[in-house]
Specification:
The chain has eight helices and five strands, in the order ααβββαβααβααα. By secondary structure, it is an alpha/beta fold. It has one domain: Ribonuclease H-like superfamily/Ribonuclease H (Nucleotidyltransferase, domain 5, 2-Layer Sandwich), CATH 3.30.420.10. α2 packs across α8 and α3 runs parallel beside α5. It is globular.
């Protein structure tokens, strides 16, 4: 067995967690490919990327060495405290991060648009600039009548987005970085978690935002080459 492991490592293999990708139907792939071809020359500097994510206390997915005579046990909490976040960024930098613990319904989504989206626009695109697009996934809250009406009344242009496409949204990389860093910290309260989330978010540089926005060209190209199937982003 050790010989097999050595050979696998020599061949460039690495022992790690499984790479999880959504199961895509033929219809998903067809629509993803159509979207990619339509947006291969899109100006991604005009887009504000947004998303929601969830962080929880006592979350650990670390790999550890275990020995038969001295096994380490890690305590888990049945119903851990969770903090949800909404964040945004564009090619020019990061916008607001909104932390909350209540259920996210359509009305509260509009409050987040007010507190997070509109509050970020001036800093990201300049005062009075309306030449930008909102990127968000197809969550029912984003497509609700209330949310659509709010966006119409506030002249928000929404970028069409294909279903089952987290690989095309660069903000997913931001959440991944935050979760890695948060798991390294000892946090015991929701207030402490919110504080650490804000600190991590504020550490992200405009250079990172520009790099992520620029990656959209490669993401779309990769999606076309994969014929609408998943990409490795």
């Amino acid at each position: 067995m050790d010989t097999v492991k050595r050979r696998l490592r020599e061949a460039g293999g690495k022992y790690s967690n499984e790479i999880l990708k959504p199961l895509l139907t033929d219809d998903h792939q067809r629509k993803r490919l159509k979207w990619a071809k339509k947006h291969r020359n899109f100006d991604w500097n005009k887009v504000i990327f947004t998303d929601e994510s969830t962080f929880q206390l006592y979350s650990s997915k670390k790999k550890v060495w275990q020995f038969s005579r001295n096994k380490k046990v890690y305590r888990t909490v049945k119903h851990p405290t969770k903090v949800h976040v909404w964040g945004c960024f564009s090619a020019s930098g990061f916008g607001k991060l909104i932390c909350f613990q209540r259920n996210l319904d359509a009305n509260f989504m509009c409050s987040i648009y007010e507190q997070g989206l509109l509050a970020s626009i001036s800093g990201l695109f300049g005062e009075g600039n309306i030449d930008w697009f909102l990127q968000e996934d197809n969550d029912p809250k984003h497509r609700s009548k209330i949310a659509k009406k709010w966006k119409e009344e506030n002249n928000v242009k929404v970028l069409p987005w294909p279903s089952m496409s987290p690989d095309q949204n660069p903000i997913e990389n931001v959440w991944r970085l935050m979760k890695i860093n948060i798991q390294k910290k000892k946090i015991n309260t929701a207030k402490g978690l919110k504080g650490e989330l804000a600190k991590e978010w504020n550490r992200f540089s405009p250079e990172l935002a520009a790099k992520l926005a620029d990656s959209m060209k490669r993401r779309v190209t990769a999606l076309i080459y994969s014929n609408g199937d998943y990409t490795m982003y």
